[in-house]
Structures are given as C-alpha cells and as structure tokens.
C-alpha cells in the first residue's frame, strides 16, 4: 500500500471544497445548500488535520474539536431555521424565498 502524502490530502480537501462551493452557487434547495456548506466545512477540517499530522503537532487537531462544536451548533440552528421557514412559506426553494416579509 502506498502511504498518502500531504498533497493527496490537500487535493481531496480542495475537491470537496470545490464541490461544496459549486453546490452553494448552483443549487436552489435550501437543504442542499446547507449540506454543501457543511461539505465545505468538512473540507477545511480535513486540511487542518492533514497539516497537523504532517507537521507533527496537535494544533490542527485541537482546532478541529472547536470546528466540530461550531458545526454541531450550526446544524441545530440551521435546521431549525429551515423548518420554521418551511412552516411559514411551505417551500424550501431559494428562488421562491425572495422577500423577508410575510
């Protein structure tokens, strides 16, 4: 088995981040956009862990714990907002949510 290099981890992280960014820019469903934002966060986390591993420090790993905590809170608040929005407007399509009134 060939050991993974830092370049491989960073390449996977860049690909995941690009897929997430493309999903945020193209998709119109609120849930899909939310999942793409989470994918971008996972890509950044992967890069931090990779740099931490190859530098031989624990700094990136410690920072990942904070990122995961923030991501858990983001998921709870984000899904609550999406559910409230759906109850109010009966849709989760971003094209139809063009006004903050009503």
CA(first)-CA(last) distance: 59 Å
Structural class call reads: mainly alpha
Q: Can you name the CATH architecture?
A: Orthogonal Bundle
What's the number of helices?
3
pLDDT < 50 stretches = none
- CATH topology, anyone? Helix Hairpins
Strand tally: 0
Order of helices and strands: HHH
Whole-number tally of structural domains: 1
Rg, alpha carbons = 17 Å
Overall geometric form: elongated
User: Mean pLDDT across all residues, rounded?
Assistant: 89
Strand content: under 5%
Instruction: Give the helix level as a range of percent.
Output: over 70%
Largest sheet: none
* CATH class type: Mainly Alpha
Structural descriptors:
3 helices, mainly alpha, 102 residues, Helix Hairpins, single chain
Describe the structure.
This protein is mainly alpha-helical and 102 residues long. The chain has a single domain, classed as Orthogonal Bundle (Helix Hairpins), CATH 1.10.287.3510. It starts with 5 loop residues before the first helix and ends in a 13-residue tail after the last helix. Helix 2 packs antiparallel against helix 3. The longest helix is centred in the last third of the chain and has 31 residues.
């Amino acid at each position: 088995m060939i050991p993974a290099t830092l370049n491989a981890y960073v390449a996977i992280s860049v690909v995941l981040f690009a897929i997430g960014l493309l999903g945020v820019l193209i998709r119109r469903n609120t849930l899909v956009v939310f999942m793409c934002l989470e994918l971008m966060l996972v890509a950044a986390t992967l890069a931090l862990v990779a740099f931490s591993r190859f530098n031989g420090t624990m700094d990136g790993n410690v920072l990942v714990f904070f990122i995961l905590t923030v991501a858990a809170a983001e998921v709870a608040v984000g899904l609550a907002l999406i559910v409230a929005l759906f109850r109010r407007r009966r849709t989760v399509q971003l094209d139809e949510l063009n006004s903050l009134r009503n």
